[in-house]
Design goal:
Largest sheet: 2 strands, antiparallel
Strand content: under 5%
Oligomer: single chain
Number of helices: 8
Strand order of the largest sheet: 1-2
Number of domains: 1
Length: 177
């Protein structure tokens, strides 16, 4: 991972963002940060699904989570494949052509543990009205508020990716002014 931006790379990105339509090329200074984030998501998604299922089931019916681990792990692997694919497509776009951020993709992933919990007959949890309005399909209160809420190992790569994206966009704006 890059520890800092090389000015010449950022200046080049400002003058020639490396675009081919809405796609970026290998000159994109955000690409290493996106790759780090995607790799980290790939490492932790199945764990997040299993943890979400087990902890939620145990909170409602203590001890019920243990019986759900195998199915949760299977669903977690499906989630991992889908999230890596979706993030690869999203973060492979030029930073200004990304219609949403990676945290939105992670938030959409609540459908995976939700499916398992519903199939196991675990009742929905009580949520406040703000959560219900913001995330009506998240009946178990699993939507992560941050990268770290999904998994602590996503905090650094998520913040680094966001900072890199902001840096490139700001460099472009300064170059256009």
């Amino acid at each position: 991972m890059n520890d800092s931006f090389e000015p010449s790379v950022v200046e080049e990105a400002s003058e020639n963002p490396g675009r081919s339509g809405d796609r970026i090329d290998e000159l994109d200074p955000v690409a290493p940060y996106a790759a780090d984030l995607i790799a980290a998501v790939g490492r932790v998604t199945a764990q997040w699904v299993v943890r979400s299922v087990v902890e939620t089931a145990d909170a409602v019916h203590p001890g019920a989570g243990a019986a759900l681990v195998g199915e949760a792990a299977r669903v977690g692997e499906q989630a991992r494949v889908e999230l890596v694919e979706r993030l690869t497509e999203l973060l492979g776009r030029d930073v200004e052509a990304q219609p949403r951020g990676p945290l939105v993709v992670l938030r959409d992933a609540v459908s995976f543990p939700t499916e398992g919990l519903r199939a196991a007959g675990i009742p929905a949890v009580d949520r406040d009205e703000v959560e219900v309005r913001a995330f009506p399909d998240d009946v178990y209160g699993l939507v992560p508020a941050s990268f770290a809420d999904f998994h602590p190992d996503l905090s650094d790569p998520g913040v680094a990716w966001g900072a890199a994206k902001a840096h490139v966009i700001m460099a472009r704006r300064r170059g256009q002014a």
